[in-house]
Amino acid sequence: MTAGPTDPRPLVGEPISLDLLNTRWMREGEPVDLFAGAFGLTRLEGLGLWLASVGLADRFRADAATLVHLLTARESLARAVADPTDAGARALVDAVLEHGRIRATLTAEGPGERAEFADPAWGPAWTAARDYLELLSGSPDRIRKCASESCVLHFHDTSRNGTRRWCSMAVCGNRAKASRHYARTRVR
Question: Rounded mean pLDDT of 38-61?
């Protein structure tokens, strides 16, 4: 059994809506897109890698229709996250949400919910848009873009006091600290 390709993204494990936004990132000053053939992956291989990384690979296929719908969701979420007051962005997210619904169920464990889609190719896109709604209902002020000017990544701040600024202290946070240190020592 051979392992699949390794996820090349610098930040993974965020809530699915933000993880979808993080399929675009900067590498050595150049934009990279997991769904545009990054790192020798085809577009559909990038999609398959993302579906696996967010736990959706067993429920949805990595096909062209799914990719088109996911790109639609990514653009609508990017606009909504960048400007939550943008009515056009809200309409785009709502348009993605039109393609699915939650069905209440009764399971052996008690009440439950199940997502339903007329077209399963909309499943991952709808799931990401629905996740964004859940983030907004819980803590919208903790949806953040990395404070580094050269970084385009987003994260959900789960720190106790809500003061996280960087996508990663090891990368962007360290660069900022090193830059401040260099500026202080250079002035002397």
Answer: 95
Provide mean pLDDT across the span 52-62.
97
Q: Cα-flanking dihedrals φ and ψ of residue 110, to 5°?
A: 125, -155
Residue 90 exposed, middle or buried by CB count within 10 Å (0-12, 13-18, 19+): middle
Sequence-ordered list of residues with C-beta below 8 angstroms from that of 67, at least 6 positions apart, any chain: 35, 43, 44, 47
The CA distances from residue 177 to 27, 76, 156, 166, 169, in Å, are: 19, 33, 22, 11, 9
Q: Which residues partner with 105 through β-bridges?
A: 112
Task: State the virtual CA torsion across 55, 56, 58, 61 in degrees, nearest 10.
Answer: -150
Query: What pLDDT is stored for residue 37 in this prediction?
Result: 84
Dihedral pair phi/psi, residue 128, rounded to 5°? -65, -45
pLDDT tens column, 33-43 = 999 988 889 99
Backbone angles phi, psi at 101, to 5 degrees: -155, 165
**Per residue, what are the HEC states of 43-84?**
HHHHHHHHHHHCCCCCCCCCCHHHHHHHHHHHHHHHHHHHCC
C-alpha 17/C-alpha 11 separation (Å) is: 13
pLDDT tens digits for 124-161?
999 999 999 999 999 999 999 999 988 999 999 999 99
Q: Which residues pair with 102 in a beta bridge?
A: 115
